[in-house]
Amino acid sequence: MSNLKTLGQFIIEKQSDFPYSKGELSRLLRDIGIAAKIVNREVNKAGLMDILGESGSTNIQGETQQKLDVYANEQFISALRSGGECCLVASEENEDIIRLEEEVSKDANYIVAIDPLDGSSNIDVNVAIGTIFSIYRRKSTTGLATLKDVLQKGVEQVAAGYVIYGSSTMLVYTTGKGVNGFTLDPSIGEFCLSHPNMKIPQDGVIYSINEGNYVHFPKGVKQYIKYCQVEDKATNRPYASRYIGSMVADLHRNLIKGGVFIYPVTFSAPNGKLRLVYECNPMAFIIEQAGGRATDGSRRILDLEVTELHQRSPIFIGSANMVKRAEEFLATAGNLTFHDAEPVLTA
Ligand code: AHM
Ligand code: MG
Known about the structure:
CATH class of the largest domain: Alpha Beta
Bound molecules: 2,5-anhydro-1,6-di-O-phosphono-D-mannitol, magnesium ion
Number of strands: 15
Distance between the termini: 61 Å
Mean pLDDT: 90
Shape: globular
Radius of gyration: 20 Å
Structural class: alpha+beta
CATH architecture of the largest domain: 2-Layer Sandwich
Strand order of the largest sheet: 4-3-5-6-7-8-9-10
Helix content: 25-40%
Low-confidence stretches: none
Largest sheet: 8 strands, mixed
Order of helices and strands: HHEEHEEEEHEEEEEHEHEHEEH
CATH topology of the largest domain: Fructose-1,6-Bisphosphatase, Chain A, domain 1
Number of helices: 8
């Protein structure tokens, strides 16, 4: 008990580090932590309740929503609404921005972009899923906050984090001063500091990519995958291939053990699959803060122009030297070259 530190205690301790230390950001992080605990409770009992399965509605990307996605979205929005520090929410599950401003009693200066339940295809099979969030300070100074306030480059984030609902539940976040991880102790219902000052190894031996799409990958990505599979004692190859299909879980593992996670452009997804505002940017901020690297194959993710709420981007993220190596293959092959595909085997 002596050196136990809860998320709440830690946030208060670090409050003076924040650029506008009026306690608003601390309260916002605390609100997100509370919503995460509520979502965690439902995730844990998902197999027991009639909450599994598809809710019938589809999100704006045309993907079928599951009940827990809808539930998580509602919980985070409602925690942010009652907390009063957030004027605008952008969520993967909502086509448009959600204004909270008219409903809060005082000026709220923060924008939250969120993927309430990432890896949703893993919900009903008991595989780790996550929540990803990103916090910006509002730019506009008059009137109601607008979409423009959300469309800030990733480099403008004041905080970002994720929650992983796995074999244990963890909340990992950064405010630009390193990365800290908290594990939920279910017996006291508190996130407790368990992974202070997280650092990603510069090199790793894990590559994470959906290899089922191999035939649709650009030439440089194919070559990098082959490089990972070649035997070479000096670089500990062949590497291990690990792909859960929940970005949060794949990146969390790679953050701790070292590794690279790649979701590239493909023939069928010319901009990649993952969303810049609430998936790539927050993860890039966290991984950079942990000493890693995140690019779209050539450009830093955090410097990309954001023009649309649900904009997609390819992503190469993880141990710095592994990401750099993958970039070299892309550059040599010509970033978007799809030719020289290996023959597709048919039945
Ligand atoms: P989601 O937000 O609809 O759950 O999609 C994002 C997820 C990521 O967590 C994961 O890395 C990726 O989609 C997996 O996609 P794929 O099944 O194409 O490999
Ligand atoms: Mg997602």
